[in-house]
Amino acid sequence: MNYTFQFGPLLNYLPQVVSGLWLTLLLSFVGIFGGIALGVASAVLSTSPWKPGRLLVRIYVEVTRNTPLLVQIFVIFFGLPNIGIRLSPLASVFIALVFNNGGYVAEIVRGGIEATHRSQVEAAESLGMTYFQTLRFVILPPALEKVFTPIVSQCVLLMLSTSLVSAIGVEDLTGAAMIASSETFRTMEIYLVIAVVYVVLNFVFRGVLNIAGLMIFTRSRRRLLGRA
Amino acid sequence: MRTFGTPEFLFIVYALRWTLTLTVIAFVGGGLMGILLALLRIARSRALRGLTTFYMQLVQGLPLLVLLFLCYYAPSLFGVEIAALTAAAIALTVNSSAFLGAIWESALRAIPRAQWESADALALTPWKTLRFVIAPQAIRLAMPSTVGFLVQIIKQTSLASIIGFIEITRAGQLVSNATFEPLKAFLSVAALYFAVCFPLTQLSLWLERRTARRGART
């Protein structure tokens, strides 16, 4: 191997890489929380007695889960202008990420809701609780707690897949790396650096989300502290 | 200028064979490596376990796109240029191996320890125990997630379009550039992915329900 690694030229690109990192964080943040909100709402709708709502969510979930995120981004960014909806690259990827993550989270949360025992719902009904009170106080808290680990895994995968936004020229971490690589030809060096950053981000996201979970769900916290 | 018609649609459909080729390579290659990783993860040697954990965590923490770029550009360090298909096949294989390894490891671990012990008491060697006692049950447990991950691989092959490999996403881009009708082009691409993935997703769900029923009965 007669190749000398030179990381020096990359230092000039530090500002771009840092702003790319911020954008990656922002994209992940919006994708994760927007996706969880959309996913929980869809999951509630998919277990509701309202039939058209259930059907709508079913179609939404199957479409997002059976097509690649990259193609979803292309349809939104390149395709929608054909019918007069022109979105900026950034707006397109925000929509695509929330839409995509929402579908996966919906399916996970639905599993949690369906695992709730029927008798608990009946008990809530006999106490005179409304549908929304039952959801808010009886069904959702344990359902979300049960599926919290798969949601964390899904959200970490979403953070990694934000790198796809670089395909339509959004300058996230990967996008910044593409620019630095084409201007300096230090391709291997820049992608190795970016790879390390992503691996670190992966652990940071997993850790932060798990801690957030322990703060939200008192029962898991008690179980953990009880064991310690 | 061309309009989006049947020939354009068929062009995308023909590219499906490359999507499927890539999927098969990644699934078979990743599967073989995954078996090895899963076995190493339950091995006695601590060093081997540590090494495999490191590999799996590293690959799972890396975006596939970055892995793809590394595989595509790394051989040029040695002055070798590789085809986009080769780079995509390597990247997808490495990626799948880590995820399939994790799925299969958890399936192996789901079999109660007592079964290993009783097989040992019957003087079965560890290999025989694995082959005749543990693996048959673990495979059944792992089926739903394995089919689920196969769907992931099919969708992940779309990333190969970014390094210029002509599978259906790239074919869609080419058609979109030639006809200026990106909506039709990319919706066709999405429909094709859906047509391939949806039956598999349903299969995975059916397997999962069947496993759950069996579990409830015993």
UniProtKB/TrEMBL annotation, chain A:
Name of the protein: Polar amino acid transport system permease protein
Alphabetic keyword roster: Cell membrane, Membrane, Transmembrane, Transmembrane helix, Transport
GO cellular component: ATP-binding cassette (ABC) transporter complex
Record localization: Cell inner membrane; Cell membrane
Species name: Shinella fusca
UniProt-recorded Gene Ontology molecular function terms: transmembrane transporter activity
Residue stretches making up the ABC transmembrane type-1 domain: 21-209
NCBIfam families attached to this UniProt entry: HEQRo_perm_3TM
Pfam families given in the database record: BPD_transp_1
Coiled-coil intervals: none
SUPFAM superfamilies documented for this protein: MetI-like (SSF161098)
Family: Belongs to the binding-protein-dependent transport system permease family. HisMQ subfamily.
Any single GO BP term: amino acid transport
Regions that span the bilayer: 20-45, 66-84, 147-170, 190-217
Membrane topology of this protein: Multi-pass membrane protein
Automatic annotation (TrEMBL), chain B:
Transmembrane feature ranges: 20-42, 54-76, 82-104, 147-166, 186-207
UniProt membrane topology term: Multi-pass membrane protein
Keyword Transmembrane helix appears in the UniProt entry: yes
GO molecular function: transmembrane transporter activity
InterPro entries: AA_ABC_transptr_permease_3TM, ArtM/GltK/GlnP/TcyL/YhdX-like, MetI-like, MetI-like_sf
GO CC terms in record: ATP-binding cassette (ABC) transporter complex
Name the record gives this protein: Polar amino acid transport system permease protein
Lineage: Bacteria, Pseudomonadati, Pseudomonadota, Alphaproteobacteria, Hyphomicrobiales
